[in-house]
């Protein structure tokens, strides 16, 4: 069994923390599932008020603000791999792999990465 040093990232794909949270909805019911904690083109962490079923595939939608009050959205399916209580007792964290990473989700991840990156001027 290999030990990963404390504070070392164990993922091979870098995930980007979000300073502002984006809401994720169930695509079939349009009910709120939770907020994105971090995201990559292959997966995401969701912060929710209820635990979710591990192993289930969820139909998800992220609503994006649009120009002239039009709503844009990104639809995708994601499989839950883990769920645990958050630091705050009223929340749960759950980890998902994106099942069908289309261009929309990849473009969203790139846009968020660019938006939340700090570059020298």
Would you kindly provide a written description of the structure presented here, covering whatever features stand out?
The protein is mainly beta and 121 residues long. The protein has one domain (20-105): Thrombin, subunit H. Helices cover 12% and strands 42% of the residues. The chain contains one helix and seven strands; from the N terminus they run βββββββα. The chain has one helix spanning 103-116, and strands spanning 16-17, 23-26, 32-39, 43-48, 57-65, 71-85, 92-98. A six-stranded antiparallel beta barrel has the order 2-3-4-7-6-5. β5 and β6 (71-85) form a beta hairpin. The radius of gyration is 15 Å and the shape is globular. It starts with 15 loop residues before the first strand and ends in a 5-residue tail after the last helix. Mean pLDDT is 79; it is low at 1-6 and 16-20.
What layout of secondary structure does this protein have?
Elements: E1 16-17, E2 23-26, E3 32-39, E4 43-48, E5 57-65, E6 71-85, E7 92-98, H1 103-116
Gross geometry: globular
- Terminal CA distance reads 45 Å
Radius of gyration: 15 Å
Instruction: State the share of residues found in helices, binned by percent.
Output: 10-25%
Residue stretches low in confidence (pLDDT < 50, at least 5 long) are 1-6, 16-20
Order of helices and strands: EEEEEEEH
Number of helices: 1
Identify the strand order in the major beta sheet: 2-3-4-7-6-5
- Residue-averaged pLDDT: 79
Number of strand segments: 7
Number of domains: 1
Given helix and strand content, the structural type is mainly beta
Sheet with most strands: 6 strands, antiparallel, barrel
Q: What proportion of the residues form beta strands (DSSP E)?
A: 35-45%
Q: What is the annotated CATH architecture?
A: Beta Barrel
The name of the CATH superfamily reads predicted glycosyltransferase like domains
- In CATH's first tier, which class applies? Mainly Beta
CATH T-level topology: Thrombin, subunit H
GO molecular function: cyclic-di-GMP binding
InterPro entries: PilZ_domain
Domain PilZ: 9-91
Keywords: Membrane, Transmembrane, Transmembrane helix
